Amino acid sequence: MNKILIGRYLPGTSLLHMLDARAKLIAGFYFIFILFLAEDWPAYILLWTFTFWVMHLSGVHFKTYIRGVRPLIWLILFTVCLQVLFTAGGEIYFEWGPVTISRFGIESGIYIFFRFVMIIFISTVITLTTKPIDLTDAIHFLIKPLRIFKIPVEEISIMLSIALRFIPNLLDETQKIIDAQKARGTEFGKGSLFQQMKTLVPIFLPLFVNSLNRAEEVANVMEVRGYQPNAKRSSFRKLRWKWTDTLSLVIMVFLTVGLLIMNTIV
Amino acid sequence: MAMEIRYNHVSADYQLGPIRTINVLDDVNLLIKPSSFTAIVGHTGAGKSSLLKVLNGLIRPKQGEVKIGEYYVSSNNDSTSLKEVRKRVGMVFQFPESQLFAETVEKDICFGPLNFGVGLNEAKEMAKKAIYQVGLDASFLQKSPFSLSGGQKRRVAIAGILAMKPEILILDEPGAGLDPNGKKEILSLIASWNKNDKLTTIMVTHEMDDVAQFADDVIVMEQGKIIFHDDVRTFFANLDQIQSWHLGIPEARRFQLLIEEKTGVSLPTICLTVEELADCLIEVGLA
Amino acid sequence: MVRDSTNPIIEVKDVSFRYDLRNSAETLSSLNFSVQKGEWVAVIGNNGSGKSTLAGILLGLYKPQFGSVTIAGYELNDDTKWEIRKRMGIVFQNPENQFIGSTVEDDVAFGLENLNMPYEQMKERVYEALHLVDMYDYRHTDPTRLSGGQKQRVAIAGLLALQPEILLLDEAFVMLDPKSRKDLLKTLQKLKSQHQLTIISITHDMNEAASSDRIIVLKSGTISSIGTPKEVFSKELDIEAPFTEKLRRILQMKGRNVPNTYMNEEEMIEWLWK
């Protein structure tokens, strides 16, 4: 639970911390999109330069980012191997049945690896430098147009922010119940798969009951504090768009242009 | 067999993701006598809960060890010996009713004993004994724990610990959130197990009236360290010290001081309960 | 303190309620009482007496099968309950589940957001309310770093921001340590006199009840007594008593010549000194 880095906010005062969450989200999604425009190694050099520059701007140590990749490393290597072993093109180095190791295969394997890692790094940058509540506010802003399709944007938003607020409580409660059942002699991680799953019932059931009770209490509190789902509500929290946010989007445009140029070299 | 509890240079800390906290326990040295009733007081964050958790191995000491009779908890216990410790050190968490999960009260109470290798029939016998011990009767055994009132749920949770027949009972604010009558009943039960069954009892609490009424000894903690450990009357004797620790005093003591201030009459002893105060007032002729 | 004795701000007439209509036993039976503007009324009773149900009814969470409730001039029904909730704030017992916002100021603003209040006005009210409970410095703090007492302060600020006339406390201090309880009680007493609030406090704490203006004692869903602390504690002998009353009863039992009625601390000390 503690080693997953994506989703953990580290307070700070870097330039990235100061950017509007909407700008970061938009830029982030856009970056992932243009990743797939890169055709050859000059383009990837440009992308890597950009990625490292952004990571440097975040003020967070490079080691922390590496730690964020580690949990996913097997998935990445597996996908890379598939690419390397089963696609053919250009000079062939080794062939055996369905397995073909070719120049194209190796190259595209490397590029897949690059793309994976860059996506993780950039996503990590966003979640490290953006308060979760600001992210939900940004999401709220960006999905507002969906109202046309009768999607309850406001309700989804408030559900997200309340869920976020109670996550630490849920984690604490889980730990407390785990401790209580350990004190009663439960041993986790021992025995057959079936036995191990059985030990989870004394955790999940109380958690579930506790969460239901909590949900009912919170709903009552919201109601008596005047919350009505379909009524118009103002917002105390404000996201403020500054010139630096516009600048960040302009930089993305430049990056795209640069990428297209790089594609023409080689 | 009465077990003595000894903390030897125990230090412990927490790991929370990439953050390592400062020592929650800092070079703790303690001797807790068998069959005593010890209250642990101090501010939130002083380390009280950690002191309890290290006693049954939920937190391992970074340094030092805790000896419980012939068992010990240190940084390199394997899980078998921890299980032996947990069989003998029963821990009741705050709001213990949140750990109830079984279909019936009986099944929930049997959970602990079954985990420790007791046979089903014997476990059911222990459950029956335990339900009476907490002041309920056998009719509760087949009910669903979720259909009970808050106070009843709490008793069932405590019964689940008593059924393991621990020699040491550690409790974290057992009266929290209960109405005065409910709290009185639970604490009286705990006191009776201590006196009659010689159950070594360690209780974290904020309520000074409970400390005055039930505890033999008091431990004061601050920032992971033990700053006081002595008997209860010595604890309440030095008012300045208590104030410097920002701790409260029992109602009776508070009123005694008010009476002494307003009337100028000094009472013969330190009154910790309303009965003692009444006797003192009669003795000096004020009442 | 000037009490308006002819203008009740809350009137409960003949209210009966049961959760399960199949059950003939009523949780609340024929309740009749009124609360005057500016009073501090304590509602006490053992578990099962119906205290929390009464709170739920006053808040419009449950509808009584019989009787009527009038609050701040409005007769309580499904339409008026929203208006009433703007004038009556409640503090529940669980500090955690009451905290909706992601930071202190966000939570205080929650009630104002529900009223669709413009931002500038909200800001003013939020900061004013935070100052009143001494939590302004914590306005950017998230709830994981607050104690139970601090969270209850924030809850109170959230109500004050609405500028209510009535404060309903539903065992609001039960989960707090004794010191926080004392501090919060003092804060409330100060706020009450500063802002002419009416306070209804459902409580177990007899010392708190002893300092109220009137006490309503509930037993098995009916009102057993209503009166001043002196009247109630002298009469109701099976409920938990405040400290001085405990002392008085023990002295009486030991044959001393104590008065037959409840005395508060000052009165007790005076009597001792004679």
Q: Class by helix and strand content of chain C?
A: alpha/beta
CATH architecture of the largest domain in chain B: 3-Layer(aba) Sandwich
Mean pLDDT of chain B: 91
Name the chain pair with the biggest interface and residue counts per chain. A-C, 28 and 36 residues
Helical percent range of chain C? 25-40%
Q: Which structural category fits the helices and strands of chain B?
A: alpha/beta
Q: Sheet with the most strands of chain C?
A: 6 strands, mixed
Number of strands of chain C: 10
Radius of gyration of chain B: 20 Å
Oligomer: heterotrimer
So, CATH architecture of the largest domain in chain C?
3-Layer(aba) Sandwich
Secondary structure elements and pairings:
The complex is a heterotrimer of chains A (266), B (287) and C (274).
Chain A: H1 15-18, H2 21-35, H3 41-57, H4 62-69, H5 73-86, E1 92-96, E2 99-102, H6 103-129, H7 132-143, H8 153-183, H9 193-198, H10 201-224, H11 243-264
Antiparallel strand pairs in A: 1-2
Chain B: E1 5-12, E2 15-16, E3 19-20, E4 25-32, E5 37-42, H1 48-55, E6 63-68, E7 71-73, H2 79-88, E8 89-92, H3 105-115, H4 120-133, H5 150-162, E9 168-172, H6 180-196, E10 200-204, H7 208-214, E11 217-222, E12 225-231, H8 232-237, H9 239-244, H10 251-263, H11 274-283
Parallel strand pairs in B: 5-10, 5-11, 8-9, 9-10
Antiparallel strand pairs in B: 1-4, 1-6, 2-3, 6-7, 11-12
Helix pairs in contact in B: 3-4, 3-5, 4-5
Chain C: E1 4-17, E2 28-37, E3 40-44, H1 51-58, E4 66-71, E5 74-75, H2 81-87, E6 88-91, H3 104-114, H4 119-132, H5 148-160, E7 166-170, H6 178-195, E8 198-202, H7 206-210, E9 214-219, E10 222-227, H8 229-235, H9 243-253, H10 265-273
